[in-house]
Amino acid sequence: MAENLKIVLVGLPGSGKSTFGRQLAIELGFPFYDLDQLIEEHVQMKIPEIFATKGEGAFRDWESKVLFDFLERKESYVLASGGGCPCFNENMDLINKKAVSVYLDVPLEEISLRLGLSKAHNRPMFSGLDQGEITLKLKSLLVERDYYYRQSKIKLSGEDFSAELLVSELIRLIKS
User: Fold this and answer.
1) What is the DSSP string of 24-69?
2) Which of 19, 25, 76, 120 could bridge to 5 as Cys pair (CB 3.0-4.6 Å)?
3) Phi/psi of residue 117, each to 5°?
4) 2, 100 in Cβ contact below 8 A?
5) At residue 1, does pLDDT exceed 80?
6) How far apart are CA 130 and CA 113, in angstroms?
7) Which CATH superfamily is domain 6-158 in?
C-alpha cells in the first residue's frame, strides 16, 4: 500500500461509515478515526449539544477545521466522515485532494432500519422522528447530498460489502 494512504468514508448517516471503517482499518492495519469524535474532542462538547447550543453553522465550521487539520497528518488511516461533511465548505474537494474517498451507497430502507428509533436520539437531525419520518428525512438528505457523494473516487453499493473488496479496489486504484 502507498505511504500515508488516507481513506475517507462518506455517505448518509447510518450507512455504516464507522462500523465498516473499523473493519477496513483492521484489514489494512491502519488506525481508525471518526470525524464526529474528533470534533467532540476539539470542541469539548457532544455533537447533539453543539447543534443545540451553537447551531449547525458553528458545527460545520468546526467540522471543516478539524477535517482540514486531520487531512494534513503524515500517516495512513481510515476516517469516517459525518454524513453532511462532504457537502459543506468545499470539504469534498479537500477530501479528494488529500485522500481516497469512498462512498458507501446503502439502500435507504436498510439505513432507515439501522437508524431505527433506538439510535435516532443520538443523531440530532433524527431526534424525535418516527420510523416513517426518518425514512422521509433520509430521502431528502440523499437528494441534497448525492451530488457530493458521487464525486468519491470509489463507490461501494448495496447492503453488504466487505473490507476485502475495498482493499482490492484500493490496490487497483493505487496501481493505475
Assistant:
1) HHHHHT--EEEHHHHHHHHHTS-HHHHHHHT-HHHHHHHHHHHHHH
2) 76
3) -70, -30
4) no
5) no
6) 11
7) P-loop containing nucleotide triphosphate hydrolases (3.40.50.300)
The strand ranges marked E within the chain are: 6-10, 32-34, 77-80, 100-105, 154-157
pLDDT of residue 163: 64
pLDDT tens-place string over residues 29-73: 999 999 999 999 999 999 889 988 999 999 999 999 999 999 999
How do 6-10 and 77-80 pair as beta strands? parallel
Which of 70, 87, 81 is closest to 150 using CA atoms?
Answer: 87
Provide φ and ψ at 136, rounded to 5°: -65, -40
Q: Which amino acid would we find at residue 111?
A: I
Can you give the pLDDT at residue 109? 84
> What ranges do the domains of the chain cover?
6-158
